[in-house]
UniProtKB/TrEMBL annotation:
Transmembrane segments: none
Molecular function terms from GO: carbon-sulfur lyase activity; pyridoxal phosphate binding; transferase activity
Any single biological process term in GO: transsulfuration
Cross-referenced SUPFAM superfamilies: PLP-dependent transferases
Protein name stated in the entry: PLP-dependent transferase
Transferase listed as a keyword: yes
Source organism (scientific name): Candidatus Cardinium hertigii
GO cellular component: cytoplasm
UniProt keywords, alphabetically: Pyridoxal phosphate, Transferase
Length: 399
């Protein structure tokens, strides 16, 4: 919790909004600075061999005080015993796989997971003799059927980017437990405002902090938060070997931006709900996917697992008329919308997964997970919903 000045707090059990602002952070003892300073230093001078590490830090490649504060904050928010920050979401994913998979081991991955995660499986660990099965995590029977005697890791993505497939986390935990494997969940697209996978018993949660933790299109970063300190120790050891820690400057930015995550996610979810509802009725639109819509195939699961009655800022639409119409839509869409590859920030963005995040997949593979030619990913920002809807309406009408 908020250890340094615990005595001044009435309770360790604070609400999410309070934790987002204060967890991990306390005024700097020498000056009273309310914001955590950026400790832009590689080395921390030691008193003696006997007192090596007495002040907790030696070399920023292993641990930096600004990064450590962000790690303490995220550990609290994710209900983890320990968290480690990385230079990117991909660094967090690669280090997690490297920590738990050896030659001859097997990992079950979502067939709709993030494009670069699929590439890491095929081109990196696959080449080193790790086996992978790609299955539909919406279907627990498929996950169960994929288990082999050498299965060490079940890797879910919640929700999947960009298809928004949800997973019954408790059911996957049960399969993992029976197999003696770990359940790791990349919950980047949800954020802890929507779901806290560790509260469901998941072993490890991963975020690309680039997305909702940052929320301002400002930084690239990642985090791995572990339920057990033992798993955390492995992650720490492999982060050192990979040399992929977060920089103090990025940690500082993320410390500030994460304080408003609850305000942003409320607005983003509200905008997404209104935009999805508007798009669903539009004659130029073939289909809309948003977990807050009654028509969403997993609406009941979303309702059961999501916190605060919120379903996040991500949705997708499928335009009638295929690739040509999608190109025209992306080219002519009015501001405040922008066309770009990031998500989760205050600026509303549209993207084209087939040529961006999922360009590694063949047309047949894309179709297999519902990314048809008219598919557009939408990341809702915090602008006024009416302005966003008006821009969509005028653009769609002119298609
Ligand atoms: C963006 C993203 C990543 C990769 O994160 P980077 O910070 O870009 O390395 C991993 N998983 C998901 C679901 C993502 O959306």
């Amino acid at each position: 919790m908020i250890k340094a000045d615990r005595h001044r707090w009435l309770s360790d059990h604070l609400q999410m909004a309070t934790e987002l602002v204060h967890a991990g952070v306390s005024p700097e003892p020498h000056t009273g600075a309310i914001l955590t300073p950026i400790f832009q230093s590689t080395v921390f001078v030691q008193e003696s061999v006997e007192h090596y590490l007495a002040k907790g830090h030696s070399y920023s490649g292993s641990a930096n005080p600004t990064v450590s504060v962000l790690e303490a904050k995220i550990a609290t928010l994710e209900k983890a015993s320990i968290a480690y920050c990385f230079s990117s979401g991909m660094a967090a994913i690669v280090t997690t796989m490297a920590s738990f998979l050896r030659q001859g081991d097997h990992c079950v991955l979502s067939h709709a997971c993030y494009g670069t995660t699929q590439e890491v499986a095929h081109d990196l660990f696959g080449q080193l003799g790790v086996e992978f099965s790609f299955v539909d995590f919406r279907n627990i029977a498929q996950v169960e059927a994929a288990i082999r005697p050498n299965t060490k890791l079940l890797f879910s993505e919640y929700p999947t980017n960009p298809t928004l497939y949800l997973t019954d986390l408790t059911a996957v935990n049960a399969v993992a437990q029976k197999a003696g494997a770990k359940h790791v969940c990349d919950s980047t697209l949800a954020s802890p405002m929507i779901i806290c996978p560790l509260a469901f018993g998941v072993d490890i949660v991963i975020h690309s902090t680039t997305k909702y933790y940052d929320g301002h299109n400002m930084t690239i970063g990642g985090v791995v938060a572990c339920a057990s300190a033992e798993d955390g120790a492995k992650i720490f050891a492999y982060r050192n070997k990979h040399g992929s820690t977060m920089s103090p400057m990025v940690a500082f930015f993320t410390l500030q931006s994460s304080k408003t995550m609850h305000l942003r996610l409320r607005e983003q979810s509200k905008n997404a709900q209104q935009i999805a509802t508007f798009l669903e009725g539009h004659p130029k639109v073939q289909a809309v996917g948003y977990p807050g819509l009654a028509s969403f195939p997993q609406a009941a699961l979303a309702e059961r697992q999501h916190k605060n009655g919120l379903h996040g800022g991500m949705l997708y639409l499928i335009l009638k008329g295929g690739a040509h119409i999608r190109k025209k839509f992306l080219k002519t869409l009015y501001r405040p919308w922008s066309f770009g590859a990031n998500l989760g920030a205050v600026e509303s963005l549209v993207s084209c997964p087939a040529v961006m995040s999922n360009s590694n997949m063949s047309p047949a593979q894309l179709n297999g997970i519902g990314i048809s030619e008219g598919f557009v990913r939408i990341s809702c920002g915090i602008e006024d919903a009416q302005d966003l809807i008006h821009a969509l309406e005028v653009t769609l009408t002119a298609l």
